[in-house]
Every structure is written in structure tokens, then in C-alpha cells.
Amino acid sequence: MNPHALELLEFPRVLARVAAHAEGEGARAALLAARPLEDRATRDAEIERLAEAIRRTQEPGGWLHVGRRPVAAHAGDATHGLDVEAVLDVGTWLDAGALTRAAWQDETLAERYPRLSAEVAALPALEPLRARIHATLDPDGRIRDAASPALKRARADHARGERDLESRLERWAHGFGESAYVTRHGDRFVALVPAAGFQRTRGLVHDVSRTGQSLFVEPVEYYEANNRLIELSSTIRAEEQRVLHELAEAVRAGAGELAALERGLDELDAHRARARWAIESGAAALRPGGDRLRLLRARHPLLAAEARVVPLDLDLERSGALLLVSGPNMGGKTVLLKTVGLAIALAHAAFPVPAAEGSAVPEIDRIEVDLGDEQSLDRGLSTFAAHLRALDAMAEAAGPRTLLLCDELGAGTDPEEGGPLGQALIEHFAGRGAWGVITTHLGALKRMAGTVPGLVNGSLEIDAATMTPTYRFIAGVPGASHALSMAERLGFDRAIVERARGYTRDEAAMLERVLNDLQTLRRELDEQTQKLAEARAAAEEAERRHRESIEEGRESLSQVTRRLTRESDAVLAQARELWQTLQREARRADKSRTDVGALRERMRAAEHDADTLRQNGAAALGERGGAAPPAPRFAADEVVPGLRVRVLDLGIDAIVSEVPDGEGNVRLLRGNWTIQSHVSRLARPEDGADAAPAQRPRHGPGARAASGPSATWEASDSAPLEVDLRGSEVDEALLALDHALDRAMLAGLGELRVIHGIGKGVLRGAVERHLREHPQVASARTGLVNEGGRGVTVAKLR
User: Fold this and answer.
1) pLDDT by residue (tens digit) across 178-235?
2) CA distances, 690 to each of 599, 629, 642, 655 (Å)
3) What single string gives the DSSP state of each residue in 6-20?
4) Which of these, 124, 471, 517, 669, has the minimum number of CB atoms within 10 Å of its CB?
């Protein structure tokens, strides 16, 4: 596309805004140099990457890292050595690559962002070089001791030598009084001693204090130690240079992959910068193509982030590809023209376009712009001559894949000649099928829309009462210039304005009035259309909420049905487990018929519970239909021991065991189960049977095992993680253990902690034997120290 046209549209300024969102210098340079892409495949691929980058950037968490400064350009140059800072910069790029790859480890990202994931996957790893740099250099650039055994030895010898020499010097300086101390002079350790009375033959005087009262003295006996330290320092520096040289050679060996890594991260950084600007400006990725120029809520890219900007809605098709925009000065016509041009240019450069989803731009090969004062003194061109040259270029370039942007067509000369020239050009542009936006004040051009195929009118609204622009675009209606009204508002002499009105031709004044009336009618029509659209949106939203409510009701009903089914299956599973227990207990010679009968009763109770749950499921479905009446409730004083009640939240019948406490909590019995409930959850039995107090169950040894702490089951309790058998007889303990194992199996637990204590070992031995023979137990082990030691056995369930 024409570079000069892009300059007139301020395309480089937009690129600078986008580039400011990049973190690396390479990405910023690439963005500033970006231009519209001519190859369609390349452009479409870039736009897909842009769309992915926008979606990925909107998600939480970072997905890209870059290095500190560009290094690839000189990493492979053997003529310039790499210093520590340059190697550290290389390390930042290697770290950035590793962090970027780590941010894309989630496999679902490759499915949702295939193009960006492919770019990340193509980044060279260079992990050996990265590890070597970190093993050699500290973050502050100091070479580590571990970088070289020789370096480590030399530094250790140097440190020991310094400590020894400093200690010996302090003892020597102590003889000159408390004011003497040890310091450095250059690379050598010296002592600061009083000058008065010091024998110069005892040492070498390196310097004198500022007052002349003290001397910096190196004693003769410590010459050799200082020399040794200087030699070690030289050895250390030489070894450091050798290590750094080898590290630089390793960097040069990987210069090609390092350049690919830096280039790949810069490209990703450019994608992210465009995505950040898109999110900030409300821009979208548009793929050029089709026969429609449609901009919805479009904004000038340099003004996109400002809330006061009035968005542009514009829709052109191939049958009307030329838009003639009229209206007053300062009304926003030039901004509209630039907005359209920049939208086309940005889309073709694979940059975000500040417009809403649903916008579309045609594929354009060339943009020609005639905008502003184009005079050129060195070429001898006046402003009008420069306009003519630009218009001539437009006429030559006009075609179906050309965008023409012309500001104030026909201006700059006599309207009697400028008007016909503009008419001829418009007819030429329309005949060539070019896309274009043309602004004008000439009435002759405004009247062409109905006579030239492909030409449509448009205007920018102005408040007729205050003569202030609203910047709202009105399609299909030409706009009045309001030149005299604007002059009057700006304080022109009223007499001059009235005289000018007297010179205005009647047909021009009538045209102004008609255009004002058209704009008023169009504004009212748009307002009514907007209200209808809002009403329709509200109705659609209400319909959507209604559908969601219906779906939620169906889902809730389905959940209730599934829950009741699961509970029924659980009770049936418990019945099957109880039957197995019955068979096992019957085979045991030491079990009485009473125990077998109790187990049979438990099994029958479980089967009854399963039937009850099925009935409750059917009742729940009936309640959804509004058929089942609520069950009659009890008053608190009516709940007495022995009373038969219905537990509503469990859907079972039970016998009241104790009177309710002060808070309404009540204990119930059902078979061998003890249930904790509340008066508010009790009702009369559903079968209509007499709910009078029944005989309260006898509490004996068997009942103790069922109602003890380990066998008590509450409606809100979950399956037990442990069962405490301490203080129970063997028979009672084993029955409670079976209860706990059944509940643990139904809950899907993997282990059960059995607390039996140590004592004489009778209960412990019985529990271990019982667990070895139990069909639900895979294995058993003694508890660990933190689990209770020998007083606990942990049963692993099948």
C-alpha cells in the first residue's frame, strides 16, 4: 500500500501506541516497522494468531516472558568478547524461554490455541547452556566458586591468607596504642600508626594521613605475606577470565539456536502487545474479505480509549461502495475518513481494529488519500495543484480493490469549476467500482446520490439549537454546512450575517432547510428503532431467563431422583451385606439363635428402608406436580417415649426413645439403629396407623451395642473413620465392629481404624481373628505410633 497514504492517515502513530505494550526491544522494533501484508495466507495466519493472543491474554496468568536486552546480534561474533553482563543477558533469554514453555504445559492450551502453542513448542530449549550459565554466574555477575576447582582453591587460599595477615598485623599494631588499626592501601594490608617516634626501618611507609600525625606502614616482616596475596589475586583473576572465556565460547556455539529463541519470543511478544492494545481499546481481529465494509461502533485508533468518543456505525456494500459525507466544519468528517482508512490498513496489517464484533472489511490492494494541505514549495506546487496531483493518482488507481479517501472534494478553487470536477471524478470512481469515502460541502455533489449508481450519502449530525456537533454519523442523509449559523454563533456581526443570507440563493437556502428536516426525521426514526431494539432485547432476555428456570427445575428434579436412587441402592447394598453377615454368623458355633434373629431383623429393616426410599422418590416426583399434601406434624409436648413417628428427612418410621430436650432434639430407635433428629422433622406415620406410644424397647446387652457411641447413626453423620470398642464385652464389640464395617463399605472408605485398647489382649485377639475371617476385610495391621500403636488395629477394606 502507498506509504505516503499511510503517513497521512497517521498509521505510524497507531503503530507506536501498539508497540508501547511490548516488553522487549525486538518486538517494539518489529511493530513499529509493520505494514499491511499483501500475501493473503500470511495475513490470515497472523490474524488467527492475533485472535488467539487476545483470548489468551484475557485469561488469568502470564503466558510469555522475554529477556532483558537483545543479545543474538553479537552472541556469535567472535571478534568481540562477551563480558559478564552480556552472558547474564543471554541467561535472561534462556530463563524466559523455560518459563514460557512451563506456562504452556497444560495440554488443553494446545487444543484451544493451536497456533500460539506451535510457536511456543518451536522455541529452542538450550537447557545445557542455561544450566551452565546458572552454575557459573551468580545473579549479580560474580563467578561462582563451583565454576572451577582451581578457582575455588585459589579463593580459599586467598581468604585464609587475608585472615591470617590481618590478625598478625592487628597484634603488631596493638603495640602502638589503641589508636592504631589495620587497613588497606591499594592491594596491600597496612597498619595506621602514630608518626611520632616510629622507626622508619621497621617497615615501608606507603602514605601519610591528611593531618600528618599518622603513617600507613607495611611492616618488613609482612612483605612476603602481602606479596603472596597479590599473587593469589592475580591467579584468581586469570582463572575467572578463563572460565568466562569458556562460557562465552559455549554461548557462541549455540548462537544460532539462541537467535531462534530470541526471534520466537519477540514474535510472541509482538502478538501479546497487539492483544493488550486490543483489550485496552476494545478492538477486534478482522480478516479482510468479502464485498462489504461494515464498521460497528468503530473508533479512531488514537482516540479509542477515550470515553467521550462517539462510535461510528457504517455499512457499505458493493452496490454502494462510495460514501459521500457532508455536514458542517468541525463536525468530525475528517476523523470519520481517517477511521475508515485506518480500519482497512490495520486489518490488512493483522492488527486489531477498534470496532465491535460483526464488523467486516473488504480486501484492498491500494489506499489513496487526498487529505490536508499538500503544497510543496520546492516543487512549485500550490495547495490546489497538490490536490489535483493526488486526485489524478486516485483516478488512475481506482478499481474494485482500491480504497479512495478524499477530504473536501472540489474545494480550493471556484465552486463553479470545482463542483463539475468533483462530479466527474465521482462518476469515474463509481464506474471503476472503487471503495471510497469522500467529504464535501458542495450542494451539487450532495444531489448526485440518487443519480450515480454506487454512491450513497451520509452526514454528521449537528445540534441545530446550539450549533454544536454531536459527531454522530447518519447514513443515507446529506448534511447541511450551516456556515452562516456557525458564523453567527461565533460572534460575527449580525448585520454582516444577515447581508450574507440575502445573497444566498433561494434554492440553496431551501436545500439547507430540507436537509435539516431530513436529519431531524432520521434522528427521531433512529431513536424509535433503538427503543424497539431495546424492548426486543428485554423480551429475549426474559424468554431466556424463563427457559433457564425451566431447565433448572428439570435438573433439580433429576438430581432429587438420582439422590433417592443412590440412597435406595445403598440400602439394598446394606441388605445384601447383612445377609452375608447372617450366613457367616449362622456358621459360627459360638453364636446363639438370638444373634441370628437380630441380624435377620436388621436385614428386614434394611429391605423396608429400600421400599420406603422408592416410595419417597415417587412422592418427590408427585410433589413436583403439586399433588401430595404435607404430612401432619407433632407439637413438642406430643412427642413422648414409645410414640411411633415418621422421620421426614429420612423417609422412615421410628419409635421415640426419650423426650425432646430444651432445643427440640430427640432420640429415636429403629431396630438396632439410634437416630438423632429434631421435633420439627417428625410427623405422623403415612400409613394412618395408630401413632400411640408403643412399648419402649428393653435396654439389654444387645441394645447397648447398638446404641453405644460406636454404633449410633445420625442423619447428618458421615461414615465412621474409626470405631471405639473399649469397655465392651467381646460379643457387643464384634457386633458394633460389623456395623462400622458395613457403613464404611457403603461409603466407599478404604480403611477403618478399630480402637480396642491394650489391656490383657482378649478384646484385641478377638478383633484380629474377626477381621481375618471377615469377607469385607482385605488385610489388617497394628496401628503406627501416631495412630495409637498396639491399642489400635487398622483394617484395609476390599
Assistant:
1) 889 999 999 999 999 998 878 888 889 999 988 888 999 999 999 999 999 999 999 9
2) 27, 20, 12, 12
3) HHHTTHHHHHHHHHT
4) 517
